[in-house]
Amino acid sequence: MDKITRRRFLTLTGVTAAGALAVGATRIDWTDLLSAAQQNPLRPDAGVLVVVTLYGGNDGLNTVIPASDRAYHDARPDLAYKPEEVLALGEGLGLNPGMKGLKQAWDDKRLAVVRGVGYPKPDHSHFRSMAIWQTASPETASKTGWLGRWLDATGDDPLRAVSVEPVLPPLLAGERTAGASLPVTGLKLPTGDLGAAFAALGQPQQGEPMWQARAARSVVDLQHAAQVLGGATHGSMQQAKTKAKPAGGARYGALGAQLDLVAGLVEAGVPTRAYSVSLGGFDTHADERGTQQRLLTELDTALTPFVDRMRKTDRGKQVVVLVYSEFGRRVKANASQGTDHGTAGPMFLMGEGVKGGFYGTQPSLTDLDNGDLKETTDFRDVYGTVLEKVLGTDGGKVLGDHKGRLDGVLAT
Hints:
By secondary structure, this protein is α/β, with parallel strands linked by helices.
């Protein structure tokens, strides 16, 4: 997925036909968001949804691992994790050993694992499957993303849905508008003597003319933005990838930088209700075990401090994180110590308002559909639930006649 161009991905998903992607995909900066926070601050009780996309098709069976199931070991003897290697959740399942923070969230009843998530008549193509997940339209091609339709249904302000990824994902493209784009790059203020001199420019002086006062105030606003938005606004994405994390020597990573920025925006009261972030590299056709565990560790070390940070403020307590990938992998390993494109996989929901535990039925590893897992939970059930419980919108306005929902996973 990382080698596919943005243009080709959008063309093959079919979402480029949405005129809003061309005219409404607003590139914004910190001034737009902080101005919005002052003029129309996020209500402390307003739900906020953070969608995490794992591009490439994450292997769900080595994420939420049926380590006690003999069929699992028979199907992938060299890729399988032993029961003593996984982080036990119960019911014969355990998390990948790289997900220690999510295991703590599970123990704290703040992690929901939705099992067997997919859609009818699954497609093994990255492009078609991602288009289905991002448009929430399995049966027919749609020119709008599901959160884009939410924007259309509830107001056309692009600041209500923001992508902090390098590109704007199709899920934020509506018919009349699209979400805004705020990539994690480049707000870097001078330091040392130059920094002190720069800060002094913002100090007000008695009797100064109106426009001089406004110029000084802009310097103060800039410094405030850097302080509020935090380290993720400083330097390039490459620098963000190597920023050290305090816990266990893990690296910060691109996803951590994205979530750090989201956290600062939530705490600043920016009126955005939906954010999109992503992590790529999950197309593990060869040498999967080490690659996937590294990526899941990066996911874990990004999500864990983000969720813990959000628990500390009233606005942060309203944040719900949704994690998904376009499909799972085949049950049987291939000859290259990897797995090929499959079907159903787990989704995660995290946050203070999440009622932790298992939801949905674990797919059978012996009752397969031509070697693939059979979907037991429709992904639109999850979308409908967060639309109604987090974003406060009638799911029918976005999902049409799909009525499925997950009972009890989110606090009312």
